[in-house]
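Need a sequence for this fold. Nothing fancy.
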């Protein structure tokens, strides 16, 4: 019996590995036959280095081998690790080898993967709040209403329904930006990124489908008043990972990789034969996978000889001052993309480097690993996995302290301790 179980586990690991290798190969084809041609003006150059290609392939298979250790220790940590390989390592390795680029970003990501392997799978005793289901209902609904009511009082029900059809998006965004205050903006971000997605998954788990439907309507309302497409992403991702893969983190990540592989194969066909352009390849492949990687290399190049000491953060700017008049995101946009209308935001890798060099990378990647060690120690219900998927994606394109405060990571800690623990048999 034990041998059969072991074979089954090995097959799951091999399936995830095979899917990841296939996706890596297809993304390389995207770079060669699409990005380096149609988006060359963005900086995606064709300067292939065979030595660097072999170098990153050795690293890739080393991290695949290391992943088996995490696979045996924690299915939650393993699933997050696969997302790190997919969104962090693979795109950056392609940029490194196919553009003959600098080593800093790819080896900084290697530091992240090593630290995550050593820290995140560890479990330590955390006392969660074992309260009644009734109390949990009251808690999540109260937090949601506390943040929603001030927003609703300001925006009421005066909105443009065309926004729901992705029309008049920019007009809606302009109105939203002009009306919302800084305090309400925090509430809005917390509602969209944490509170309502948790509320939606919580009521689905409890089979309170009417309440789940109202949670879904709240997300639709928050989208209509703001035109923020991120609301679509948080809603779809939350629902996708709730329904697929059952109660298993491994099944969820395996099915996600499978559907992603199918999508990557289908997207060029849809672009060429239906859309007659490269809309999906530009929005989905370039912006999701490769543009954040390209920005890493821009940040490492620009801040190679200067550190900001977190002077763009609201707390640290009381003690340190940036040598530049502009925010770093605008500096990168102007110097590397010749535009002052782009906000070239960065993730935790380049955030760490621009502030404290490689020490900053080490500090932020260590903090990242301890954050996920905390969640791993709680035994999170797998049906909440979509919310953690979203946060990995946020870490790809937003600074650490922004994610903790504006992104609402602090709220996720509270929900993890109170309502997200796995109590299903």
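Here you go.
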């Amino acid at each position: 019996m034990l041998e059969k179980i072991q074979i089954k586990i090995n097959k799951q690991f091999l399936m995830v590995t095979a899917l990841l290798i296939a996706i890596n190969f297809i993304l390389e084809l995207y770079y060669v036959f699409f990005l380096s041609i149609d988006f060359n003006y963005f900086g995606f150059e064709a300067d292939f280095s065979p030595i660097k290609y072999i170098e990153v392939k050795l690293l890739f298979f080393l991290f695949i081998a290391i992943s088996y250790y995490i696979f045996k220790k924690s299915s939650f940590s393993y699933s997050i690790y696969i997302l790190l390989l997919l969104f962090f390592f693979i795109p950056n390795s392609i940029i490194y080898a196919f553009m003959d680029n600098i080593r800093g970003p790819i080896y900084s990501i290697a530091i992240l993967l090593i630290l995550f392997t050593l820290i995140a799978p560890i479990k330590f005793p955390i006392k969660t709040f074992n309260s009644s289901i009734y109390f949990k209902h009251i808690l999540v609904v109260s937090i949601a209403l506390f943040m929603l009511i001030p927003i609703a009082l300001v925006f009421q029900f005066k909105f443009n329904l065309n926004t729901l059809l992705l029309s008049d998006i920019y007009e809606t965004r302009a109105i939203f930006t002009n009306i919302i205050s800084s305090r309400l903006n925090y509430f809005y971000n917390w509602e969209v990124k944490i509170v309502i997605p948790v509320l939606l998954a919580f009521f689905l788990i409890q089979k309170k489908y009417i309440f789940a439907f109202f949670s879904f309507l709240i997300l639709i309302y928050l989208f209509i008043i703001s035109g923020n497409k991120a609301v679509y992403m948080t809603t779809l991702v939350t629902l996708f990972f709730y329904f697929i893969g059952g109660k298993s983190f491994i099944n969820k990540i395996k099915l996600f990789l499978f559907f992603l592989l199918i999508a990557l194969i289908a997207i060029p066909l849809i672009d060429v034969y239906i859309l007659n352009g490269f809309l999906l390849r530009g929005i989905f492949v370039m912006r999701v996978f490769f543009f954040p990687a390209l920005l890493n290399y821009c940040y490492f190049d620009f801040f190679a000889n200067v550190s900001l000491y977190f002077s763009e953060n609201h707390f640290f700017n009381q003690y340190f001052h940036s040598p530049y008049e502009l925010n770093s995101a605008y500096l990168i946009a102007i110097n590397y993309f010749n535009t002052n209308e782009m906000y070239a935001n960065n993730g935790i890798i380049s955030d760490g480097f621009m502030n404290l060099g490689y020490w900053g990378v080490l500090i932020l990647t260590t903090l990242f690993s301890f954050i996920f060690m905390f969640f791993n120690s709680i035994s999170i219900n797998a049906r909440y996995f979509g919310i953690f998927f979203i946060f990995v994606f946020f870490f790809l394109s937003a600074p650490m302290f922004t994610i903790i405060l504006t992104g609402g990571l602090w709220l996720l800690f509270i929900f993890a301790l109170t309502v997200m623990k796995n109590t299903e048999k």
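For context: Residues 36 and 46 are 6 Å apart (CA to CA).
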